[in-house]
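User: Second chain of the day. Same drill as before.
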Amino acid sequence: MNYFPRPYPDEVVGSLILRACRHLGLAYKRIIQSIGSGPGAYGSFLLPSNLPRLGGLTGISAERLLWEHTMFPYIVAFMEPAEVVRLQRKILNSCGDESSLSSLTKSVTHGTRFRRFCMECMQEDIDSKGETCWYRSHLLPGNHLCLRHRSWLKETTIPLAGKGSRDISMPHDIAGRLYMTHLSHVVLTTLTELSHAALSCRTRPAMDYRLEALQSGYRMPSGEVASRHLTDSLYRFYQDEFLIETGCWFDVKQRNPWPALLARSDVGAPYAPPKHLLLATFLKCGSADGKEREYGRPGPKVRDYDTEDRNCLLAIKGVLKEMERTGSRTTVQRLLTEAGCWSHFRHHRDKYPLTTEFLKAFRHSDRSKRQLGRRPYWRRRLGLDRA
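Assistant: Same format as last time:
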């Protein structure tokens, strides 16, 4: 192949291949086979195989293509350095195939289903280059803003994965639609800035989620992170729709959802970049309810019997006041049951001195069915006490 276009700054490598199709007038499949080693070549829009061959065609090193024109920096942003080196060597091997690369791009494609573009970037490209392209920074999960122009991105119906990603349409060919969300512009800007930093950084970002969570007020009396409250707050902050969109949804009722595990001091298993970035954004912009909740001390709960005694007495008086309207009588057990106190009172009578004293007087009153020292009320009504 005598000619192949060179990539523009931040242009994703898939866009470069699409421009080659348009420049050369060749089918997408034909271009991929020319770049690769045959029919089995992997033509991912975000991270294709055979980067060394593509580097030879463009005059740019394969390593530079990997770091500046694929999603590789974002994918490995939170991995250990040794693992990053291992993956880089594997990808730059000219024998790279679909099985070795497709799993890496899932963290991006699960959170970004369709291509996105900025209208202002598109117009500038037309004016300066005479054509348009697809930029990496516009395709990051949860990113709906162009940081350069501070404007909303438009979303297309062209998927980033599968056969649909072979569509050679460019931004100027599509109308697109604006994104609608409940999240504020400040939150989306913070998420976009952190995502761009992950995309452009070759070193692992230093994020101590545990320390940030504690400083934000998510602290148990023991000094540990209140992970359950942190998880609940994050879930309410983003809500289902956005968590599903970014591929980060979790069941808030499960025992250890990913926000709780990430907030621990030692994060053992690797987590997808969007999860790191959503947690980091939440801790920077999150709601204030997590800073106001009080937590009890661990261990058996100590009942406040003085308060319960007073509340029980008030509840009993409320039941008796209601009974005055009908003139009905009741027993002590029924009275306590209707007041909601019988179950605990019967086993801890000595803990309820005010209630006990009141019930002694109640038993001698006309309101009790079983009056102490007197004949049962029903016997007097029937005249049986004179028999």
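The mean pLDDT is 83.

User: Great, on to the next one.
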